[in-house]
Design a protein that fits this description.
Helix content is 36%, strand content 16%. The protein has 160 residues and is an alpha+beta fold.
Length: 160
């Protein structure tokens, strides 16, 4: 067992992990953070996407031990005080999910994209989400949600 120290969803965490344990396994099995989905397990689908130091990362391929000293954010960590984040709200509002399996990974990738660029073009959104697959084909609704969330974030900043 390896003891690691990380920040998980804005809270410090010390945990012991197995040498070959993936971040996905740690999140789902040890910490019961089941919002991060187990999909293909080979880094192709994006269902397991979390943010590591703000960068979208496939948690199925990332060893838990490598998160030592890092900041990890899951889908559970982007809402505040039981209030959904703007991107989560827009995914619901725009009907961006059908089965919902890809949704956490899509949201986390979109969240990171909007942190860098609140006005992404359709091509920038497509490029940003290229590592995430939606088997239901809700891509247009996802693009609409990302654009709408960017507009709402900008409006919120102007009000502040």
């Amino acid at each position: 067992m390896i003891q690691i120290h990380l920040t998980l969803n804005n809270a410090p965490l010390t945990i012991e992990v197995e040498e070959g344990e993936t971040l996905l396994e740690m999140l789902r099995n040890r910490l019961e953070l089941t919002g991060t989905k187990k999909g293909c397990e080979v880094g192709e689908c994006g269902a397991c996407t979390v943010l590591i130091d703000g960068v979208p990362t496939d948690s199925c391929l990332y060893l838990a031990a490598l998160t030592d000293g890092k900041e990890v954010t899951t889908i559970e960590g982007i809402s505040q005080n039981a209030t959904l984040s703007v991107i989560q709200q827009e995914f619901i509002e725009k009907g961006s999910m059908q089965c919902g399996y890809c949704t956490p990974g899509m949201i986390m990738t979109s969240y990171a994209l909007l942190k860098k660029n609140q006005h992404p073009t359709v091509d920038e959104i497509k490029k940003g989400l290229a590592g995430n697959m939606c088997r239901c084909g809700a891509y247009q609704q996802i693009i609409d949600a990302v654009q709408s969330a960017g507009e709402k974030l900008e409006a919120m900043e102007k009000e502040a």
